[in-house]
Amino acid sequence: MNNTQKNLELLEELDALLDCGYSQSEILDLLTGELGRKYRQRLQRGQPWSAVWELEPELLLVLRAAELNGRLRDFVALALEHYRDRMAFQNTLRQKAAYPLLTLGFTLLMLLAFVFFLLPLFNGLLVELGGQASSAFWQWAFLGGLVLLLLNGKFIYARLLEKTGLRQTLESIQTLNLLAITDRAGIPLANFLSEYLRCAPPSALNRVYFYLAKGLPVGESLSRAELFQPQELKLLTIGGGVNYSRGLAYLLKNFKQDYQNKINKIIFYFEPALLLFTGGIIALVAWSFFRPLFSYTGLDF
Questions:
Q1: Are the CB atoms for 61 and 196 separated by under 8 Å?
Q2: Residues of 36-70 as b/e, b for ≥16 C-beta within 10 angstroms?
Q3: What does the pLDDT look like over 128-158, one tens digit per residue?
Q4: Could you give the angle at which helices 242-296 and 72-113 cross, rounded to 10 degrees?
């Protein structure tokens, strides 16, 4: 179970206990989940949740603000929605990526079966029939090429993000998530970013904070940071309020849909190419493998 699932489990447990009207001190004795048991002893010694809970930087800052204002219940509701949305988004992407990964895995297993199982078996048969054992050069060459492709998967993925615009879309989603969290938690964005950027890796948000620190409003800061198009920024009413919150929700939904559409487009072109590539590899390896048998029986092509 990864950290997201563990945190979601703890949040759901806290949400249920708070709904039942238990106080924070009573809740500590009732926690049964993995993280709850892990944190219980430190919490019972008087340490705050923000000093114990292993969260992302943005949620940790919101938790600290919630503790200062006595709004743990509000934080649990916000974080619960955040993690559920993230899990749903990640599950959608995993489902879309499953088929290409399974195809690559199947190809690798086929090559391993050719090289380590079928080739020795048929070589032994050829020798018994008086022929010469076939070379495994092409099988090993194709296998090595596929392994190199898999080992360079991270580099290929990074280039894919860059060339297709997925990286910029992900940055926009991250920014909108932060804006939505600060808006719902009632934390001034400039104060939030000044703390967040101390513990988070450098990103496009540094540019946003630079303009916010100069006293510019949120919309203009985002515009100058060039994270969004002008027509998108029009949805974020300057000054906050209901329209601002609705604009954030609408933009976040649109960017997530845009990200999924880009993934769909990549897979639409990638799947046939991958099938041709893996099918070609298997066909070439099979041909180099069975050709000695055809030659021995007089069926050389």
A1: yes
A2: beebbeebeeeeebbebbebbebbbbbbbbbeeee
A3: 666 565 566 666 776 677 677 777 767 777 7
A4: 10
* 292, 134 contact by CB (below 8 A): yes
pLDDT in tens, 173-213: 877 877 787 777 777 777 777 777 776 666 667 777 777 77
CA distance 32 to 114: 50
**208 Cβ contact list (under 8 Å, min separation 6):** 175, 193, 221, 222, 225, 227
b/e for 164-190, b at 16 or more Cβ within 10 A?
eebeebeebbbbbbbbbbbbbbebebb
